[in-house]
Amino acid sequence: MTKFSELNINETTQKALIRMGFEEATPIQEGTITFGMEGRDVIGQAQTGTGKTAAFGIPIIEKLDPKSTAVQALVIAPTRELAIQVSEEIYKVGYGSRAKVLSVYGGQEIGRQIRALRNNPNIVVGTPGRILDHINRKTLKLDHVQTLVLDEADEMLNMGFIEDINTILASVPAERQTLLFSATMPAPIRKIAETFMKNPEIVKIKSKEMTVENIEQFFVKSHEREKFDVLSRLLNVQQPELAIVFGRTKRRVDELAHALSIRGYIAEGIHGDLTQAKRMSVLRQFKDNKIDVLVATDVAARGLDISGVTHVYNFDIPQDPESYVHRIGRTGRAGKSGVAVTFVTPREMGYLRIVEETTKKRMTPLRPPTSDEALLEQKKNAVDSLIEVIDQQNSEDYAGLAAQLLEKHDAKEIVAAALKSLTKNIDETPVSITEERPLPSRRPSSSRSGGGYKGGNRSGGRSQGGRSRNFSGGGSGGGSRRSSGPRDSARRDGGSRRNSSNRSER
Ligand SMILES: Nc1ncnc2c1ncn2[C@@H]1O[C@H](COP(=O)(O)OP(=O)(O)OP(=O)(O)O)[C@@H](O)[C@H]1O
Ligand SMILES: [Mg+2]
Predict the structure, then answer these.
(1) What percent of the chain has pLDDT over 90?
(2) What span, in angstroms and rounded, lies between the C-alpha atoms of 263 and 259?
(3) CA angle 441, 443, 447 (to 5 degrees)
(4) Where is the Helicase C-terminal domain (predicted)?
(5) Residue 37: how many CB atoms within 10 A of its CB?
(6) Both 146 and 36 in a single domain?
(7) 233 and 140, same structural domain?
(8) From CA 188, how far away is CA 191, in angstroms rounded?
(9) What is the ipTM for the molecules in this complex?
(10) Ligand 1 pocket, 302 CB below 6 A?
(11) Which residues span the domain enclosing 102?
(12) Is the CB of residue 123 less than 8 Å from the CB of residue 58?
């Protein structure tokens, strides 16, 4: 590990980093910061949660000319939430140098952004659509930009943002520096990227596996119609502090969030069709621990850094190994540990193997817990909560009542009754989730090459319709609900762009 002082970073920035709790540079920071400060083009690839944001944020701050009122760095990110998060991190890095950082993204009132842009930000972080919008309105001038960053570059190119990005590139001086970062960088995407870079330095942090070691990875083989009950039981057994459940489509996310709420979990969904205000409030509540389970699509969660996510559940196995890497990377960040569980239907086992081939990591099979096991866990929880109250030593108010009970009943009998009343029943309320068709069958083979990047046929005729059925007990009705069906408009970026690809959240 290298100290930031050894990287020739000025003291003001070093102080800011200490304030952020950063003691030493992570490997990707160590490998790229110097090139970044020298003005070199860099392609940086390192595992999820290993500090890529500061790897480009630090050079941006270091190179900033505080006397200039022009925009000197432009960072492009695929989603609004990521744009906000990245701008906050850069702001913190530039705390001492008083760098003005502004985020611009779709879904936020443009007038407000225009006024903020007049206030001479030094660094702008935004989503492609909204950046283009400001370029066209001439409210964002980029002729003094020295550094251009594409965060989650592969995702943006993959999402069909290439045209938008090319247009933005044309508005930025040719002699700029370009930095490109992601945990995954499939070769074809890297080739495209290299076309707009100058002799880039490729920094790939070598590791045996593509995913971080501190995430325990499991898979559960389960039939489509049983998945939801298995998920409910796993949540009971594993007791995650904060969990993210990934669903394949927006409808899936809506249905899962609703179904989890019916079963008594505090769950909310996020995906690109929700209003910006709703997405922000859901994320805020999740970060504040007011929501236990966040249900999300891949795109909605790319790059998000939410500390304390202990478990990731892939309710649907992702089609691309890259998506898998990013999804499970929402846990096990900055050296913390995490658990990832991937559901796989028998027909999708081929995908599981493809994921494993790519990540170079085997997932451990996990037997779906039975409802008895889930109940046993609930009983243990009842014991834990009783002990917690005893430890708090503040139940004297009940001492009199306890004495009265003890006169009439045996102590063991009383404790057993208390535990019984504390044990939450296993909630198997029927819920309605539209069945997804399994992914088209694929076998792991030498044709892997990063999952579905080849040929652009990523959805492979995936189901949009499907049948609706009730889970648990086979009962009908009982709180079941159909959600409003798939909504496929691509609006992750304020709706201003074409949608040229057809992946999950489209
Ligand atoms: N040198 C450091 N020391 C301690 N913590 C750090 C350091 N650098 C970054 N972090 C923290 O680690 C967390 C993950 O960082 P970041 O979001 O930049 O990861 P990433 O590599 O971009 O991940 P992803 O691939 O998911 O986008 C953040 O909370 C960040 O503040
Ligand atoms: Mg990142």
Answers:
(1) 69
(2) 6
(3) 120
(4) 214-374
(5) 18
(6) yes
(7) no
(8) 5
(9) 0.99
(10) no
(11) 4-204
(12) no
Total number of domains constituting the chain:
2
Q: Which amino acid does the sequence have at 402?
A: A
Q: Whose CA is nearest to atom 10 of ligand 1?
A: 51
| Cβ of 17 below 6 Å from ligand 1 | no
Q: What is the mean pLDDT of each run of 10 residues along the chain (506 residues)?
A: 90 96 96 97 96 98 92 96 97 93 94 96 96 97 97 90 91 96 92 91 91 96 95 93 96 96 94 91 94 92 93 96 96 96 96 95 94 87 90 91 94 93 80 83 53 35 34 32 30 36 36
Ligand 1: which residue has its CA nearest to atom 23?
49
Mutate to test the pocket of ligand 1, among 28, 29, 53, 309 (most ligand atoms within 8 A of CB): 53
Distance between CA atoms of 99 and 63, rounded to whole angstroms? Answer: 11
Pocket test for ligand 1, best of 1, 181, 305 (most atoms within 8 A of CB): 305
CB 246 within 8 A of CB 318: yes
pLDDT tens per residue across span 264-288: 999 999 998 999 899 999 999 999 9
Predicted pLDDT of residue 493: 38
Enter the tokens of residue 329. 């990377």
Q: Is the CB of 79 under 6 A from ligand 1?
A: no
For residue 344, the cross-strand partners are 221
Instruction: Mark whether 110 and 189 lie in a shared domain.
Output: yes
Q: How far is CA 410 from the centre of its chain?
A: 52
Per DSSP, the residues of 239-281 read: --SSEEEE-SSHHHHHHHHHHHHHTT--EEEE-TTS-HHHHHH
| CATH number, domain containing residue 306 | 3.40.50.300
The answer to whether residues 184 and 100 belong to one domain is yes
Question: Same structural domain for residues 339 and 248?
Answer: yes
- Domain boundary residue, one of 182, 204, 226: 204
The identity of residue 165, as a single letter, is I
8 Å CB contact between 80 and 276: yes
Q: What CA–CA distance (Å, rounded) separates 379 from 371?
A: 12
Question: Does residue 199 sit in the same domain as residue 225?
Answer: no
pLDDT value of position 233: 93
**Distance between Cα 220 and ligand 1 center (Å):** 29
The structure's pTM equals: 0.84
Is the residue at 376 inside a domain?
A: no
pLDDT the model gives residue 268: 97
Three-class SS state of 204: strand
